[in-house]
Automatic annotation (TrEMBL):
It comes from Ventosimonas gracilis. GO terms for molecular function: rRNA binding; tRNA (uracil(54)-C5)-methyltransferase activity, S-adenosyl methionine-dependent; tRNA binding. S-adenosyl-L-methionine binds at Q186, Y214, N219, E235, D295. Its EC number is 2.1.1.35. This is tRNA/tmRNA (uracil-C(5))-methyltransferase. The active site is at C320, E354. InterPro entries: MeTrfase_TrmA_AS, MeTrfase_TrmA_CS, SAM-dependent_MTases_sf, TrmA_MeTrfase, U5_MeTrfase_fam.
Length: 362
């Protein structure tokens, strides 16, 4: 993780520049007025990772400028990280100074926290972890009131849980999420709440069904399920799929069928090209799909998935890379028109931005 250029006094200027950039990218597609959702100026990031750098006998939390892995930037605090992370940083540092069992050959520390106040710390080592480490780690987890994971080659020892519990407010309802260590979750939870609320409003109340690709831990699945008759949600990651199942159960969502399939495999199944045992309990002909929800990786949608999307009445496209979104829109614009567009400032003080568009069949 690179150190961001944290300049809160320039936040509004930076956000305005992102807005102009996204407007220019969407202009060829006659996009409507951009809806903009800003971020808290500080303490917005719920996860952070640091190298542990030893110098003059002292261990320091360290980050690096982009492209430079040899000149560490030492940190005693990290203002973009959650208040819980900033609370834990000095407490953990003191515990490491007092315990060679915990500190020996430790090279990286990862924090994962939530708006709900939960926290998990992962300690990464260049040595095997033994019973002495485990005893010290159990005491540390109890002292800090966190879950703790120790990682080394071939080892993953869990003290407490290997996930954190989040609670996000979307409209009048509060949803609970399990977010596993090592799996993707939105880093800026405040903006995530705004993004989910926008998606719920953009979808509206539909009488047909929703197909979701790249559902992850069910971040969008959970609140959007109430806007449609049924949902078929797909995800290839086993840990994310397990978390999504737990989140659906936790929130009493009973109109979602979750299947472990890639986007490519979903297209093959819907077109009848392949039959999958993982769909043995799913009758695709029972679904009346009207909306497709996609939240793809930075590479965007491949050609086959774009072709699949063109058959839907509505497409909700959440993107972490506006350039690949534009590449996909050149294809989707042949059959669909942008009805709503939004910018979600998930990553202040960087050039990165999250965006969303609602497209409807022409």
């Amino acid at each position: 993780m690179s150190a961001p250029n944290y300049l809160p006094e320039q936040y509004d200027v930076q956000l305005a520049a992102k807005c102009e950039r996204l407007k220019a990218l969407l202009a060829p597609f006659a996009a409507p007025t951009l809806e903009v959702f800003d971020s808290p100026r500080s303490h917005y990031r719920q996860r952070a990772e640091f190298r542990l750098w030893r110098e003059n006998g002292e261990r320091h939390y360290a980050m690096f400028a982009p492209g430079d892995k040899h000149s560490p930037i030492f940190l005693d605090a990290f203002p973009i990280a959650s208040r819980r992370i900033n609370q834990l940083m000095p407490q953990l540092a003191a515990a490491l100074r007092a315990s060679e069992a915990l500190a020996g050959r430790l090279f990286q520390v990862e924090f994962l926290t939530t708006l709900a106040g939960d926290a998990l710390i992962t300690l990464c080592y260049h040595r095997p972890l033994d019973e002495i480490w485990q005893s010290a780690a159990q005491a540390l987890a109890a002292q800090l009131e966190v879950s703790l994971i120790g990682r080394s080659r071939g080892q993953r020892l869990v003290i407490g849980r290997d996930y954190v519990c989040e609670a996000l407010q979307v409209g009048s309802r509060r949803y609970r999420y399990r977010q596993p260590e090592g799996s993707f979750s939105q880093p800026n939870a405040d903006v995530c709440q705004k993004m989910l609320a926008w998606a719920v409003d953009a979808l509206g109340q539909q009488e047909d069904d929703l197909l979701e690709l790249y559902c992850g831990n069910g971040n969008f699945t959970v609140p959007l399920a109430g806007g449609v008759r049924r949902v078929l949600a797909t995800e290839i990651s086993k840990s994310a799929t397990n978390a999504a199942r737990a989140n659906l159960l936790e929130n009493a969502i009973d109109n979602v069928q979750l299947v472990r399939l890639s986007a490519e495999e979903v297209g093959q199944a819907l077109s009848g090209v392949r039959v999958f045992r993982r769909l043995a309990q799913v009758n695709l002909s029972d679904y009346q799909f009207g909306t497709l929800l996609v939240d793809p990786p930075r590479a965007g949608l491949d050609s086959a998935t774009c072709a699949l999307a063109q058959d839907f009445k509505r497409i909700l496209y959440i993107s972490c890379n506006p350039e690949t979104l534009v590449d996909n829109l050149r294809r989707l614009n042949e059959t669909h028109q942008i009805r709503r567009s939004a910018l979600f400032d998930q990553f202040p003080y960087t050039h990165h931005l999250e965006c969303g568009v609602l497209l409807e069949k022409r």
